[in-house]
Amino acid sequence: MKRSLVVTLVAALLAAVPATATAGTDPAPGDLAAAKSMNVAPYFLVDEAGHPNRTGPFLIPVRRNVPVTVATGRASLQALLDGPTRRERNANPAISTTIPKNVELLGLTIDDGKAVVNLTKNFAADDDAAAGALRVAQVVWTITRFPTVDRVIIRQNGHKVAVQTGEGDLVERAVTRDDYLAFVAAISVESPTYRGVSQPGSLRVTGVGAVFEAVFSYRLRDHAGSVLDAGIAMTDNGAGWGEFDFTIGFDVDDRQVGTLTVLAFSAKDGSKIDVRKVPVVLKP
Prior knowledge:
284 residues, mainly beta, single chain, globular, five-stranded mixed sheet, 4 helices, Immunoglobulin-like, 19 strands
């Protein structure tokens, strides 16, 4: 599966950072002095109805505002280790994490597309329960959101350990997103992030999906539930996992939280399947 996670500001700065440095930044270098905060996207889990053919919980990127730093990779992983906030849980009680409390990030290096993430032993990457694979998946999807990272090695207290994949295998090699597709919804929205912010009047939607004949539907509603736009979109692969990238135009009078819904229809009976709902802040 190709990756469609384009983060141009991050990539621009990371290109100028030594390969072994801690992962990158969101703001451009000249903006760091002026910026006070930035957004990162840790991957938590959400369990929801509307997926008759797959079993959740599913990985979702959640927008998290943090103090600005050049170490965006560390900031993203630290936000992940901190877990969902009370506000996030109150907004959606289905959001969760499988990462144990008090896990610490001891180090992060990136070299030639490989991230080495060093965590304390209580991360328990080799846990043979389903939660073991899910917690590794959360780390892998969080750090591979950066375009400079495509595979991950997990260390615990500096020691390389075997990790569970989504298929239940215990492996000592570097793992990738493809190892954890079992924990991804059939239509997985990467952008906007959960409660992400649109551009004025425009919402770019990217992600990956595995749907019949590559076709799925989308709807964007405003805060009152009125449909701002609806249509058909496609992935670039009708026979497995593929990418999608399209833009929705909309018109709202004020800044508000709307809802992006993506879904497919069953080829068997026409019922709605693979329904994903993403709250998004819409800017006029």
